Amino acid sequence: MDYNGNDATQAQQQTAAVLTANPDITGAGLKGAVQVALFDASEINIEYLRAGTVTQVIAQKPADMGYMAVITAMANARGVTSMPKRVPTGYAVITADNVDDPAVARFIYTGE
Fold first, then answer.
1. Bridge partner list, 58
2. What backbone phi and psi angles, to 5 degrees, belong to 103?
3. What confidence score (pLDDT) does residue 27 get?
4. In this predicted model, which residue has the larger pLDDT, 52 or 8?
5. What is the pLDDT of residue 59?
6. How far apart are CA 58 and CA 39, in angstroms?
7. pLDDT the model gives residue 73
8. 37 has which bridge partners?
9. Other C-beta atoms within 10 Å of 93: how many?
10. Are 95 and 56 in contact (CB under 8 A)?
11. How far is CA 8 from CA 5, 18, 48, in A?
12. Is pLDDT above 70 for 26?
């Protein structure tokens, strides 16, 4: 796992280095192609998706995260002792096929 500090140039260099170091790497069943996914549905990442630079963007669900954080905090404040150690909020996989679907597009972070 390589972290890139949200720097697209560094991410591109890291990906190129992995592909160069592992010339036999292939995507599962893709006849030699490698799929690249980005994490977080920022506008720039969606632009990369639309341009075909990446094949998918993994979007977090911040509203669900906030909602579950408040519910969990309220339960804790009320003395609930059977709190789960992990509260999954899920994610959405955004592809070129569904990027314009309103049910998925709502997870794209815009500057608005």
1. 39, 93
2. -65, -25
3. 62
4. 52
5. 93
6. 5
7. 92
8. 56
9. 12
10. yes
11. 9, 15, 10
12. no
Query: What is the number of other CB atoms lying within 10 angstroms of the CB of residue 34?
Result: 14
Contacts of 42 (CB under 8 A, 6+ apart): 108, 109
110 and 45 Cβ atoms separated by less than 8 Å: no
Instruction: Give residue-wise pLDDT tens across range 40-99.
Output: 898 999 999 999 888 999 998 888 889 999 999 999 999 998 888 888 888 999 999 999
Q: What is the full DSSP assignment across the chain?
A: ----TT-HHHHHHHHHHHHHH-TT---TTSTT----EEES-BHHHHHHHHHTS-SEEEEE-HHHHHHHHHHHHHHHHTT-----S-----EEEE-TTTTT-HHHHTTSB---
Contact 38, 15 (CB under 8 A): no
87 close to 75: Cβ distance less than 8 angstroms:
no
Give me 58's structure tokens: 């993994």
